[in-house]
Amino acid sequence: MHTELLIGGKWIATAKRAPVLNKYSGATIAETSVAEQKDVAAAVAAAQAAFEKGPPGAYARYKVLDKAADLLEARRAEFIDTIVKEAGFTASDAAGECGRAAETLRLSAEEAKRITGEMLPIDGAPGQGNRLGFTLRVPVGVVCAITPFNSPLNTVMHKVAPALAAGNAVVLKPASYTPLTSALLCEILVEAGVPEGYINLLHGSGGSVGKWLLAESAVRFYTFTGSTEVGKWIQSAAGLRRTQMECGSIASTIICADADIERAIPRILAATFRKAGQVCTSIQRLYVEQSIFDSFSERFVAAVKKDAIAGDPSNNKTFVGPLIDPREADRVAGWVSEARKLGANVLTGGERDGYAVMQPAVISKVNEQMDVFSREAFGPLVCLVPFTKFEDCVRSVNATPYGLATGVFTNDLQRAFYAAQKIDVGGIHINETASSRVDLMPYGGMKESGFGREGPRYAIREMTEEKVITISL
Fold first, then answer.
1. FRET pair for 150, CA 20 to 30 Å: which of 109, 230, 277, 320?
2. Which of 246, 328, 432, 448 is catalytic?
3. Angle CA(99)–CA(97)–CA(80) in degrees, nearest 5?
4. Alpha carbons 255 and 333: distance in angstroms, whole number
């Protein structure tokens, strides 16, 4: 596995190195090269030079991305092992990441063949009868992808694959916590035939490498997933250059009294605690109708105790692996302890365990003064909140500054349509959880959760420019 930078088709080692840790044990598993400012400039220059030569044709891009999907599947075991170690995912979560990433590659490959403009009804304007008009969609140029640790393969793929499908050149800066998965991805893209300079890889912190990337005027588009605070900083620095931002969230799911609880509980369990709750759409607020609150809480807590086993992600019985860093585990466990002191009822979990593991927590009797309810936790906890009036529940969901996704379990069409119309989030999923993304769908948020959409078809539209062409006859 390469641990160097990839610039202009060449793997380049640097003097400065950074350790990559096993997120369960804390042991060093690799060291990566760290980019200096000159390396950032060189990567952007290589991408710009490659783009100026002209991208491969649409069918050639399709073939490269389709081959990359085959190569990913052939190296599936290597990807899974790497993700388990450097991200702390369970093998099941890592396997899901790989399967979805291959699907995202194939979706992007197919969309590469479908990029098109549209005819304009220009002769419908006065005096334009002898004129034709149409649009073309063309790549923006150099795309900078800044990606998170909590989806080190598929979120990266959702940025890189559509950018390449559209004909753009890419500079990728993955999270410092999880650089190895991105290196493997770049290896398969190079092997699949991505031209030199069209995929470049830089390792380093957002405070240095990210800052230098934002200073590079040749970058035409920034695609980012991460915190709202960093997203605001990137947006400010980008100026008039285009961006796509997927930022913070406090995700909610609503359980109505008429819901199919047998169907709902396993979905809620997975959506809350997979990847140790470190997903933008992990359920943090679980609203339960008052008439079933006690019975649901009892059943849900029993399911958490039975199935949400926390520990070593390499153990097949583990459902909840470690958080990305011991400091994050300390923070989240501290929030649970603080909530307890403020009067919350911790029904199960919340304890620190080992290097960076936290026992999954279910909390009731919460209020706005508690961090577990009012701030993005990004950890394995969920707050159970009773409601009587559905409209009040919707208002509570909307009261956060975020707006990424919400799930609603109900068989009442009136409530379903009310939720669809009134909940201010980018995705509303009826009889599914907030965390029920399908890779072909448009995915993105509102308010401080960001803007723009992922999903290959929609990301390609974000990463292309529209030209108007007219011909007078």
1. 109
2. 246
3. 90
4. 26
Look up the pTM and report it: 0.97
pLDDT digits (tens, 9 = 90+) for 191-201: 999 999 999 99
Who contacts 240 (Cβ-Cβ below 8 Å, separation ≥6)? none
Annotation marks residue 256 as catalytic: no
CA-to-CA distance for 278 and 307, rounded, in angstroms?
A: 18
Mean pLDDT along residues 43-63: 97
Annotation says 246 is catalytic:
yes
Contacts of 236 (CB under 8 A, 6+ apart): none
Going from the N-terminus, what domains does the chain have, and what CATH number goes with each?
Answer: 5-247+449-472 (3.40.605.10), 251-440 (3.40.309.10)
For residue 471 the two structure tokens come to: 């011909």
pLDDT tens track for 378-407: 999 999 999 999 999 999 999 999 999 999
User: How high is the pLDDT of residue 1?
Assistant: 77
> Is the sign of the CA dihedral 377, 378, 381, 385 positive or negative?
positive
pLDDT tier, 143 (very low <50, low <70, confident <90, very high otherwise) = very high
Name residue, tokens 């004129």.
131
